[in-house]
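Moderator note: this is an archived Q&A kept for reference. The question asked for a predicted structure of one protein chain; the sequence and the answer are reproduced below.
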Amino acid sequence: MVRSRVLVVLGALVPGLTLLASTQVSAEPVARQSQTVSFSSTPPSGQDWLHGANSPFDVSWVASASATSGLPVNYSIAEASTNVCRIVRVYEDDPTFGTGAGIRFMQSGTCTVIADQAGDDAYLPARATQSVQLSKAPSQFDHVRATKGLLGGPSTFTATLLVKSVVQSYSFGLGGYPGQVVTFTVGGRPVCSAVTDIYSRATCKAALSPTATLLNVTFTVSWTGDARYTPASKSALFGLF
């Protein structure tokens, strides 16, 4: 900001004539003040991302920050967090959510929210960040079964993949997880893989060697997990033919 000071100097410029006024203007820079941006919101943790995973419009958390200058702040998501969370709306004196950025969590990981105040003629820019650590939710197998093939025929394997999810309103339970590749192993060796269907059930068939058929009475089904859920595995006995 520039503050002008006007000095008026009166003098007789020409003898016998009326006095004239001349002005002198000097520029005097004034330093901008510093300001601070700080968050007042409490970051969630754990598996709270599950609340927003099923709807692209659900708000999982409202991040709220303010500047000591009283100027409004702008919110954004750190580039490294764009696959974990995103801003779905910005609130201003909302009766339920107050003022801040409505954040939707999409998976586990670190969600970093940035609050910027760009500054003006009187204040320097300022920035603050707030991070949320979100952990993976558990997964498990159910209805794990296998039958050995008769007279050298293929053995049939089946299992249902379940994950922790929001099953009703905001209550947690176990739900299916379609579209995931699970693997069945016998004697420590993979024998077949299958993708879970719309009922979250995976079924595949594999011809076992005579040695594997005779020596192994158990099998294992496993899933590697993903960005949302932990890996899962379960062993079981072969059933009757």
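Archived answer notes: The chain is about 0% helix and 55% strand.
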